[in-house]
């Protein structure tokens, strides 16, 4: 993908202002929650009692719920892929440790790393999961990587991250609600704090896009249109298990999420509508002809997608995940 040279200049312009909003979207390490704040402490005599209570609460979670929680965990644990991908974006120089963009990517990764760590340990203690099978899927997902069709374009990448952070916020927020309904307040709190992180990060990436619209509106509009024509694929879209084809397990995981109402096609549409509103797409000034056509496409897209979604049925076919032991 041949990118206009203005992309680099825009990234430099936005990068100069990241430091001023850094504290708004990322938090000091010392003040952030850590997985150990929620999990039984193995150094205490009460450890085994607490684990037993955790396992009793986990038994109340449905098969689909465990499948979704495992899929969410594997997705979060594929951070090596996500960090290496962001470091290749035009305008980010990982050799320059003091560059604002480099510091942002590393600090964002460090915050996100806590999510998979927390969920992995919970699942290990729950007694519901075949950990080796789950770990195999995680290794596959990292080694398989992903293709989200953004290339090294920062405009397309920031569209993707804005969308994805909102999607993961919804998913973790819904798993928190379902856990609470099952009386599993510990898990509900875990998923809730992860969801809060995702929303904070979503606000950051959305703010980057807003700044780009201010200085390069037509190119930003075209990048938005391009990403929505391709459709935003999930970062775990290559998810698989041993003996299963690439992406096949992801389809079953996605079906389980749809059945639970954790993340649905209607959520996808509502995220897009929220971004149209957030970035005031209907009011963006100074667009060229191509930008105007892109705007028209984007404004009409939610209604078109909703007509398709209303006709889509979620498969009820049972699938036995290798991850789940009980």
Description:
The mean pLDDT is 94. The chain has 326 residues and is mainly alpha-helical. 67% of the residues lie in helices and 0% in strands.
Key structural traits:
mainly alpha, 67% helix, 326 residues
At a glance:
Helices cover 67% and strands 0% of the residues. With 326 residues, it is mainly alpha-helical.
Q: Helicity, in percent? A: 55-70%
Count of DSSP helices? 12
Largest sheet: none
The first-to-last residue Cα distance is 47 Å
The geometry reads as globular
Coarse structural class: mainly alpha
- Uncertain regions spanning at least 5 consecutive residues: none
Q: Using only CA atoms, what is the Rg? A: 20 Å
Strand content: under 5%
Order of helices and strands: HHHHHHHHHHHH
Mean pLDDT: 94
* Total strand segments: 0
How does the SSE layout of this entry go?
Elements: H1 6-25, H2 47-58, H3 63-77, H4 79-86, H5 100-126, H6 131-144, H7 154-181, H8 185-215, H9 217-230, H10 248-260, H11 265-278, H12 289-311
């Amino acid at each position: 993908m041949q990118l206009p040279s203005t992309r680099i200049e825009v990234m430099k312009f936005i990068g100069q202002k990241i430091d001023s909003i850094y504290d708004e979207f990322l938090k000091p390490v010392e003040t952030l929650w850590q997985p150990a704040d929620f999990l039984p402490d193995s150094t205490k005599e009460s450890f085994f009692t607490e684990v037993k209570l955790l396992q009793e609460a986990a038994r109340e979670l449905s098969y689909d719920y465990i499948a979704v929680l495992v899929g969410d965990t594997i997705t979060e644990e594929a951070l090596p892929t996500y960090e290496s991908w962001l470091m290749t974006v035009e305008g980010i120089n990982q050799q320059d440790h003091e560059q604002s963009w480099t510091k942002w990517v590393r600090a964002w990764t460090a915050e996100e790393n806590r999510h998979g760590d927390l969920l992995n340990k919970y699942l290990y203690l729950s007694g519901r999961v075949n950990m080796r099978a789950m770990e195999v899927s995680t290794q596959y997902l990292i080694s398989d990587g992903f293709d989200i069709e953004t290339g090294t374009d920062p405009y397309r990448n920031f569209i993707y991250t804005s969308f994805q952070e909102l999607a993961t916020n919804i998913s973790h927020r819904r798993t928190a609600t379902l856990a609470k309904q099952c009386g599993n307040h510990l898990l509900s709190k875990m998923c809730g704090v992860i969801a809060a992180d995702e929303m904070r990060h979503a606000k950051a990436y959305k703010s980057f896009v807003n700044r780009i619209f201010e200085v390069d509106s037509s190119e930003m509009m075209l990048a938005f249109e391009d990403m929505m024509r391709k459709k935003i694929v999930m970062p775990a879209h290559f998810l698989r298990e041993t003996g299963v084809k690439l992406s096949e397990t992801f389809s079953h995981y996605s079906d389980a999420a749809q059945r639970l109402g954790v993340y649905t096609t209607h959520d996808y549409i509502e995220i897009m509508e929220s971004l149209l509103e957030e970035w005031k797409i209907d009011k963006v000034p100074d667009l060229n002809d191509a930008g105007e056509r892109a705007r028209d496409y984007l404004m009409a897209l939610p209604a078109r997608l909703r007509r398709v979604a209303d006709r889509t049925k979620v498969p009820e076919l049972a699938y036995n995940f290798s991850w789940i032991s009980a």
